[in-house]
């Protein structure tokens, strides 16, 4: 048999036998780091949501100021529908 095949099979069998011992130990060792990373991710997500909300409010205020300066207001759905003829041919 090929030496590489035997070597690969030996590594596979060894990893299979050692996995039940090594994986829980590895999980215990990495748990604090994963917890820190999760907390940092949640914190960054919350800060991002706050920034988007603040920017959205700023943009809405700016749009309202612009409409007020132009003397226009955003038409409501009913008012916009009343202004448009229903047959699409204009007034007659």
Task: Outline the structure in words.
There is one protein chain. The protein is mainly α. 82% of the residues lie in helices and 0% in strands.
Task: Break the fold down into its secondary structure elements and pairings.
Layout: H1 3-70, H2 77-83
Order of secondary-structure elements: HH
Helix/strand/pairing class, anyone?
A: mainly alpha
Radius of gyration: 32 Å
Q: What distance lies between the first and last C-alpha atoms, to the nearest angstrom?
A: 94 Å
Query: What is the makeup of the main sheet?
Result: none
SS strand fraction: under 5%
Give the tally of structural domains. 1
Instruction: Write down how many β-strands occur, each being a DSSP E stretch of 2 or more residues.
Output: 0
Give the low-pLDDT segments. none
Q: Roughly what is the average pLDDT, rounded to an integer?
A: 84
Residue share in helix: over 70%
- The coarse silhouette is elongated
Summed up, the helix count is 2
TL;DR?
With 92 residues, this protein is mainly α. The protein contains two helices and no strands. The mean pLDDT is 84.
Main attributes of the structure:
92 residues; mainly alpha; 2 helices; 82% helix; 0% strand; elongated
């Amino acid at each position: 048999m090929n030496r590489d095949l035997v070597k690969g099979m030996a590594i596979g069998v060894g990893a299979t036998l050692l996995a039940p011992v090594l994986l829980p130990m590895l999980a215990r060792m990495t748990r604090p780091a994963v917890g820190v990373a999760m907390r940092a991710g949640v914190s960054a997500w919350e800060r991002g949501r706050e920034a988007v909300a603040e920017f959205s409010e700023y943009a809405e205020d700016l749009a309202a100021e612009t409409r007020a300066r132009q003397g226009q207001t955003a038409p409501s759905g009913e008012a916009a529908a009343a202004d448009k003829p229903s047959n699409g041919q204009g007034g007659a």
